């Protein structure tokens, strides 16, 4: 019986990795710039300030670096800021 549970637990690991890759890919292939909505809610900002804000949050980082940061934040319990409500996702959940 314990072999069964160990086997099932070991199967869960690649499933979670696969799901995280699928979710991350879907988030990143969505059309448009999700960060623009967050920045537009602030008082009108210049194009240079917008670009510096996008650089600060890592929008222009390579995809593998974005994924690594995203998974690291998820494992720490930081799910980011909701684009719709502009509040931490953990508080909304």
Please describe what this structure looks like:
This protein is mainly α and 93 residues long. The protein folds into 2 domains: 1-31; 33-93, no CATH class. The protein is built from 5 helices and no strands. It has helices at 2-29, 34-40, 47-56, 63-76, 89-92. The longest helix is centred in the N-terminal third of the chain and has 28 residues, at 2-29. The protein is elongated, with a radius of gyration of 17 Å. The N and C termini lie far apart (36 Å). The mean pLDDT is 84.
Short overview:
With 93 residues, this protein is an all-alpha fold.
Rounded to an integer, what's the Rg over CA atoms?
17 Å
Mean pLDDT score:
84
Q: Quickly give the structural class.
A: mainly alpha
Portion of residues in beta strands equals under 5%
List unreliable stretches of 5+ residues. Answer: none
Could you state the order of secondary-structure elements as H and E? HHHHH
* First-residue to last-residue Cα separation: 36 Å
Helix content: 55-70%
Helical run tally: 5
> How many domains?
2
Strand count, sense and closure of the main sheet? Answer: none
Defining traits:
93 residues; mainly alpha; 0% strand
């Amino acid at each position: 019986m314990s072999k069964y549970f160990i086997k099932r637990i070991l199967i869960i690991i690649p499933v979670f990795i696969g799901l995280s890759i699928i979710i991350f890919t879907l988030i990143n292939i969505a059309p448009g710039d999700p960060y623009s909505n967050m920045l537009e809610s602030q008082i009108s900002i210049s194009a240079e300030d917008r670009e510096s804000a996008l650089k600060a949050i890592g929008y222009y980082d390579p995809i593998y670096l974005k994924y690594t940061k995203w998974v690291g934040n998820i494992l720490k319990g930081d799910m980011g800021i909701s684009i719709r409500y502009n509040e931490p996702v953990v508080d909304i959940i």
